[in-house]
Amino acid sequence: MAVWVALVGRYNSVQRAAAALIALLLLPSCGTDPMAAGPQTPQAPLASQAPPGPMLELGAPQSPNTPAAAQSQSAAPQGDARVRVEAVPRGIAWGKPPLKTHLLDVTVQNLAPEPRWIALAETFPYEGSEEPRIGQGKVAELQVFELSRAPRVVVVLTVATGGVWALRLPAEGTVMLRKLRIDSWWQDVPATAELEVVSAREILLGSRPMATCIAGPATSEAGADVEAPEDAADPRIVRDLCLADDESVAIEFVDAQRARIRVHLGSRSER
């Protein structure tokens, strides 16, 4: 039976002075050991950083007040694919105009009783457009990062138009990625922007599951709190096992659902 999905976000400026955005994607039916790159700063427990947000019951009818942008944009997948994403702005790195890289502390939680891939757009939509969309172009390169060994955290960046940051989480698992880099090409930075999120049972590169491109387990361990990758020069990058240097392939999200969350980008003084 197909069941519609809703994404609900709520921002409370009194309770969250850090200006966090909590979003829920509902679909049908860390302390970390250091890497070779150097020690990581111990962080507060995730439980204190990501309190449960409001949830829409599976199968419940859509509220007439639910914004259209927060509703399902594709056919309902099989299985339970609930995820929760929270993003907190931590600054902007300025590139060659108009390029900007937004640094976000992102908490990703898989609320489903099965492992799921969760993919976040690597670029905000262009000004006045909904593009680039996740999966829009062929993947020309994979950048695989082993951010932590214990607990293990693996994040994949697909280099493409509509590229993504993707990680596979266990059932009910949560991971914090600090200073995740999301690019934008706006002339002026808005106060908020929409970021596309996809939850999928599987991600295929051509006919190959993305998990087969990763040496070792593809599923990250729950409870990790790590620094996100910087760029291709990050010493935590590892070789992918799929794409040849001159190869590009289509990307497919299996049993997937898309939604957009509204991300607070900070006040002008914070930028």
Outline the structure in words.
With 271 residues, the chain is mostly beta strands. The chain has one domain (6-56, 70-264). Helices cover 1% and strands 39% of the residues. It has 1 helix and 16 strands. It has one helix at 46-49; strands at 6-10, 21-26, 83-94, 100-110, 116-121, 141-149, 152-159, 164-169, 174-184, 192-200, 202-205, 208-209, 224-227, 237-238, 251-254, 257-264. It has a 7-stranded antiparallel beta sheet with strand order 14-6-7-8-5-10-16, with no helix packed on it. A 6-stranded mixed beta sheet has the order 1-2-3-4-9-13, with no helix packed on it. A hairpin with a 2-residue loop joins strand 6 and strand 7 (152-159). It is globular. The protein starts with 5 loop residues before the first strand and ends in a 7-residue tail after the last strand. Mean pLDDT is 77; it is low at 1-78.
Provide a quick synopsis of the model:
The protein has 271 residues and is mainly beta.
Compile the SSE list and pairings.
Layout: E1 6-10, E2 21-26, H1 46-49, E3 83-94, E4 100-110, E5 116-121, E6 141-149, E7 152-159, E8 164-169, E9 174-184, E10 192-200, E11 202-205, E12 208-209, E13 224-227, E14 237-238, E15 251-254, E16 257-264
Parallel strand pairs: 9-13
Antiparallel strand pairs: 1-2, 2-3, 3-4, 4-9, 5-8, 5-10, 6-7, 6-14, 7-8, 10-16, 11-12, 11-15
The structure class reads mainly beta
Topology, number of strands: 16
- How much of the polypeptide forms β-strand, as a percent range? 35-45%
List the helices and strands in order.
Answer: EEHEEEEEEEEEEEEEE
Strand order of the largest sheet: 14-6-7-8-5-10-16
Main beta-sheet strand count, sense and barrel state: 7 strands, antiparallel
Q: How many structural domains?
A: 1
Mean pLDDT: 77
Rg of Cα set: 18 Å
What shape does the CA trace take?
globular
Please give the alpha-carbon distance between the first and last residues: 46 Å
Helix-residue proportion: under 10%
DSSP summary: helix tally: 1
Model regions low in confidence, pLDDT < 50 over at least 5 residues? 1-78
